Automatic annotation (TrEMBL):
Record flagged with keyword RNA-binding: no
Organism from which the protein derives: Meloidogyne incognita
Source organism phylogeny: Eukaryota, Metazoa, Ecdysozoa, Nematoda, Chromadorea
Superkingdom of origin organism: Eukaryota
Stated family: Belongs to the unc-93 family.
Coiled-coil intervals: none
Protein name: UNC93-like protein MFSD11
Length: 409
């Protein structure tokens, strides 16, 4: 890429807005995704004291996704009422509240904030799509989508690195002797109360930084014009109009054709963000080589490398000139390979319980880490092309379009 093009891109105010948006999401999801790697294991410790039910982490995740699916229908009118930037900030504060709840765990508060987080996630991601669209053109859509996702997904590697440092330095919990040979049939993967408070204090503070970054986002001229139009309309009419427009767009041939694609991205995200790391922790054979907590950190590091690696390929090979269908085809092949490796490498019981059983082959740590990277890379292939497609094809209805993808995923 020519140096003068890079300089122009860097000085472009719309590109700077997208970069700032990505940085805000980086901090919020550095906190949220990092805690997602350990949430089930953290809550397992509170299960033993009777504070929460068994598998409360999975229950929390189910509540989040159920609330997220339903609340996506009301996200566009909320964004239209509050404005894009205010919606981003308000939703981000709910993430801070959810993380702060782990400083003093109560089951009712966990489930209540999980339901509220579903609404916040719907508003946050729909507002993100709208703000990204407001700052993009058909020519810059692919580049801006890649830039945003690169910033947002890099949080996984940074979060994994943070967890690795904490676990290695934690006295009496995880240290240099964690790389060991062992014949234990069960392993305590719970976290001490001190570790939980340290980790979630950090997560809460980092998420708050992300909210501050989002609050400083500059408004765009197109956004200001739309807000002036909103003020002229009656609230009771435009809310119904916004919801009705979601169904109208969803029934178009393009959206119907993409329904399966959107659903696939949701299944993929649920698997690699929650089920996959839990399966790694519950596979006892892995623990003859590394502490389960160290494995969590390694998993986060390799998973966070997928999107930045794809962005590097985009820049070096100028993939924005290649047909989107070819990039998607590569993503499909990589996803198939990753799922196949997980199937042959992870025991069937590992998503729910600790197990000493083997899979089709003897589980190997290096294969699991490769799976983490491949899952992240194929998710990046899907996400960049989907974002670019929606920005180009729905420039004036971006909130509704991004709402639909989140409903189906």
């Amino acid at each position: 890429m020519p140096s003068n093009f890079r300089l122009t891109c860097f000085l472009n105010p719309h590109t700077r807005n997208v970069l700032q948006l990505g940085i805000g999401f980086f901090f919020i999801f550095l906190a949220f995704n990092s805690q997602g790697f350990i949430e089930e294991s953290v809550l397992d410790g509170y299960t033993k004291t009777g504070q929460v039910d068994k598998h409360a982490g999975y229950t929390s995740l189910s509540i989040i996704y159920a609330s997220f699916t339903v609340c996506n229908f009301v996200a566009p009118p909320i964004i239209r009422l509050l404005g894009t930037r205010t919606s981003l900030v308000t939703a981000g504060l709910v993430y801070v509240l959810f993380l702060a709840g782990f400083l003093n765990v109560h089951q009712w508060f966990l489930y209540a904030t999980s339901a509220l987080l579903g609404l916040a996630a719907a508003v946050l991601w729909t507002a993100q799509g709208k703000y990204l669209t407001l700052n993009s053109t058909p020519q810059s859509a692919g580049r801006h989508s890649s830039l945003f996702l690169c910033c947002a997904q890099a949080c996984l590697s940074c979060g994994g690195l943070f967890l690795l440092i904490v676990f290695l330095l934690a006295p009496g919990d995880v240290n240099n002797n964690q790389i060991l040979q062992s014949n234990k049939t069960t392993t305590n993967t719970s976290f001490t109360s001190e570790n939980v408070k340290l980790l979630y204090s950090f997560f809460t503070g980092i998420a708050l930084i992300g909210v501050i970054v989002l609050s400083l986002l500059p408004p765009t001229q197109r956004n200001n014009c739309q807000q002036e139009q909103n003020k002229e309309e009656k609230e009771e009419t435009f809310i119904l109009t916004e919801i009705n427009s979601i169904f109208k767009i969803a029934k178009t041939p393009k959206m119907l054709a993409l329904a399966v694609v959107f659903a696939n991205t949701g299944i993929l995200l649920s698997f690699w963000s929650s089920i996959f790391p839990t399966s790694i922790i519950n596979t006892i054979i892995f623990q003859t080589q590394f502490s389960p907590k160290i494995l969590i950190a390694f998993n986060g590091i390799v998973k966070g490398a997928g999107q930045p690696f794809l962005s590097l390929i985009f820049e070096r090979l100028q993939l924005d000139k290649i047909k989107k269908s070819r990039i998607i085809f590569v993503g499909v092949l990589i996803q198939f390979l990753a799922i196949l490796l997980c199937f042959v490498n992870l025991p069937n019981e590992s998503p729910l319980n600790q197990t000493t059983n083997e899979a089709i082959i003897k589980p190997r740590v290096w294969i699991a880490l490769i799976c983490g990277f491949l899952l992240s890379f194929c998710d990046a292939c899907w996400s960049t092309q989907i974002f670019s497609f929606l920005i180009i094809n729905y420039p004036t209805q971006s909130a509704q379009a991004f709402c639909i993808i989140k409903i189906l995923s």
